[in-house]
Amino acid sequence: MAKLLYQGHSSYRLTADNGRVVYVDPYAGAGYDRPADLVLITHEHPDHSDIALVRQKPDCVVLREADMLVDGEYQTKEVDSITIQAVPAYNLKHDRDASVGYVITIDGVIVYGSGDTSTTSCMEDILPFEQIDYALLCIDGDHNMNAEEASHCAEILHAHHAIPIHMKAGALFDDALAEQFTPENRLIMRPGEEIILHHE
């Protein structure tokens, strides 16, 4: 079964049952010991795109927002039986044309990483029908939506589990802010924690 390691801030690692390793927004924490088959970057801010942290296998694929949002069209790609679908991510501090979120299907489990964003029409009109198992949502309330808005997004997405990420600037995690994230499907992960993913 696939696993999710939360590294802190917006960084996390997915490991497929066949050993394929995916890093999303490398920047924070530990857990970069496994060489990557796939690296996903939601946007080019330095706290989301520290590729130097990741050892890449010779055939590693790196997908950036510029690869996944082409001429205004959101792309879907498949790498080693892992499907990556780009979706909108934007707000006043993140340009719609230079940021994406990702819907990642790995071992039949659907993971949504919001990237840096506020509420989008896609969250309301499209993503609720994707049968998302795990939604990772930014909650810092400075560069992105706050915990209250993120809680509302978690409710409308209808994911089985909603995980708060991207909290205070410069911090891997913030307990007080995480507690302000209050959807019924909340799943709090702390940096260094790894879980087995299930499709429900």
Compile the SSE list and pairings.
Elements: E1 3-8, E2 11-15, E3 21-24, E4 36-40, E5 56-63, H1 65-68, E6 69-70, E7 73-74, E8 76-79, E9 82-88, E10 100-106, E11 109-113, H2 121-125, E12 134-138, H3 147-157, E13 161-165, H4 175-179, E14 194-196
Parallel strand pairs: 3-4, 4-5, 11-12, 12-13
Antiparallel strand pairs: 1-2, 1-14, 2-3, 6-7, 8-9, 9-10, 10-11
Outline of this structure?
With about 200 residues, the protein is mainly β.
Describe this structure in words.
With 200 residues, the protein is mostly beta strands. The protein has one domain (3-196): 4-Layer Sandwich (Metallo-beta-lactamase, Chain A), CATH 3.60.15. Helices cover 12% and strands 34% of the residues. The chain has 4 helices and 14 strands. It has helices spanning 65-68, 121-125, 147-157, 175-179; strands at residues 3-8, 11-15, 21-24, 36-40, 56-63, 69-70, 73-74, 76-79, 82-88, 100-106, 109-113, 134-138, 161-165, 194-196. It has a 6-stranded mixed sheet with strand order 5-4-3-2-1-14. Strands 8-9-10-11-12-13 form a 6-stranded mixed sheet, with helices on one face. Strands 6-7 form a two-stranded antiparallel ribbon. It is globular and about 40 Å long.
What is the terminal-to-terminal distance?
Answer: 13 Å
CATH domain class name:
Alpha Beta
What is the CATH architecture assignment? 4-Layer Sandwich
Question: In CATH terms, what is the fold-level topology?
Answer: Metallo-beta-lactamase, Chain A
Q: Walk across the major sheet and give the strand order.
A: 5-4-3-2-1-14
Element-level helix/strand string: EEEEEHEEEEEEHEHEHE
Strand content: 25-35%
Could you tell me the radius of gyration in angstroms?
15 Å
The residue ranges in which pLDDT falls below 50 over 5 or more consecutive positions are: none
Form type: globular
The count of domains is 1
CATH homologous superfamily designation: Ribonuclease Z/Hydroxyacylglutathione hydrolase-like
